[in-house]
Design goal:
The chain is built from 10 helices and 10 strands. By secondary structure, it is α/β, with parallel strands linked by helices. Helix 3 runs parallel beside helix 6. The radius of gyration is 19 Å and the shape is globular. The C terminus is likely disordered.
Length: 263
């Protein structure tokens, strides 16, 4: 099967701790692919391997057939993979707009020298990027009213939305979302789920999602991969995963309960 992102036999350990043990899976172009599992299952470790933050002891990660396993982390965004984090990672004393614009810098082709000689070219690039940010990303995520606000003054839910906007400014092919709904109330969670669907549908961005809210996972995912103690124990459509006894046992320790009771 042709995967846009292929993960093959990944092993990752920290000293004597085995974080990932032979994890193999793949993400198809244009799908919403969720990775779930109990705390400590290795979900974020897997994203960190995709980002090249961690280097696996064994195995390979390929983007559109290209092996990216050993590339330095700064190369990954330029290849089309963007990321948000469990904890908000923004420049809190900068404005919303300035934080978002930082994501666009990977697409600037005018360097320092050429920018000094050809100011007009650099200025045109900046204006085009600004137009893209203001007309597309800010409108999509409905943050027009806070575009000039300083990040630290915003509530947590809006800060998470700003982080998502910055990732979109990188114009990714694949967007890695690490618990985007964590800490949000019901209304904020519904909003973020809607935005994820819009990004996937309107922009054609492939989504790799880690999320503990089973309601969100089961409602928006095309396929779900389940990890437990660094091992993949199940993979398939949400309906199959919901009733998989091994998955239920990993979450609840009992076979007579359904996963739907977690949502």
């Amino acid at each position: 099967m042709d995967y846009q992102l292929a993960i093959d036999d990944i092993h990752l350990n920290f000293g004597g701790l085995q974080a990932l043990s032979g994890v193999s899976t793949g993400v198809k172009k244009g799908e919403i692919f969720s990775i779930i599992g109990p705390n400590g299952a290795g979900k974020t470790c897997l994203l960190n391997c995709i980002n090249s933050f961690y280097k696996p002891k064994k195995g390979a990660i390929k983007l559109e057939g290209r092996d990216i396993t050993r590339l330095p982390p700064y190369r990954i965004p330029k290849l089309g993979i963007a990321r948000t984090f469990q904890n908000v990672e923004l420049f809190s004393h900068m404005s919303v707009l300035d934080n978002i614009r930082l994501g666009s810098h990977i697409h600037m082709t005018s360097g320092f020298l050429s920018g000094g000689i050809y100011f007009g070219k650099c200025r045109k690039e900046e204006m085009n990027l600004r137009r893209q940010i203001e007309e597309e990303i800010i409108d999509l995520l409905e943050i027009e009213q806070i575009r000039k606000s300083i990040v630290y003054s915003l509530p947590y839910g809006l800060q998470k939305r700003v982080e998502l906007a910055r990732a979109l400014a990188m114009r990714p092919k694949i967007l890695l979302l690490d618990e985007p709904a964590t800490g949000m109330n019901l209304e904020e969670t519904e909003d973020i789920a809607r935005f994820i669907l819009d990004i996937n549908d309107e922009w054609g961005v492939t989504i790799v999602l880690i999320e503990h809210d089973m309601g969100v996972v089961m409602d928006i995912s095309d396929r779900v991969c389940v990890l437990d103690f660094g091992i993949k124990i199940a993979e398939g459509p949400p309906k199959e995963i919901r009733h998989n006894e091994q998955v239920i046992k990993a979450y609840l320790g009992e076979k007579d309960l359904t996963l739907s009771r977690l949502g």
